[in-house]
Amino acid sequence: MKRGWFITGTDTGVGKTLVATGLLNSFARLDDRAIGMKPVASGCQATPAGLRHDDAVALLNASSVQAEYPEVNPYAFAPAVAPHLAAQAAGVEISLEKIRACFTRLCALADIVVVEGIGGWRVPLGRDITTVDLALSLNLPVILVVGMRLGCLNHALLTAESIRHSGLKPAGWVANQIDPAMERLQENIAALQERIPAPLLGVIPFNKAKSFGAQSDYLNIPLLLET
Q: Is the pLDDT of residue 1 over 80?
């Protein structure tokens, strides 16, 4: 693997998968071998092949390199609850070592691996581990997806601060307009630009359909590759 990034968000449902698939599509256009990974997913659907999550499937579909589903999503849980609760209900302990092993195998297949977290930056994965520990174990620069809506400034600044304090490199952030009626959108984006010491990689307009991969046109890939 040449490059990789960890995608986190200010909350759940803010567009991490939209950004991750947009990145994968962009890298495919550049003829890079790129693959996505969703280490932990709750709210999975039962299929004849086993539990599957829409986000992980979208990442696989956007990848220019193919891998087995369990490598892309090693921990898949049916209950749509916090991952540590879903794991507890399934009698499973989420292992960072297992996730790292899957990540290493994906790295051998691809030039670029885009890893999507679950929920926000500090979501518990077990009694003593959170998504911060997951990101640290993979040692990837972090892209923060900010769901642009009322109240996002506090969430974004706290998350950006925590990313910096973790010791991981902030690769940049993306503003995703999840509330079409948000007032003073541009002023809010400007306020974050002034306060987040990482580049703004793109502004994604409201997308009612939430079509995966269509966000590639709004992402500044050259700027990302410079960081």
A: no
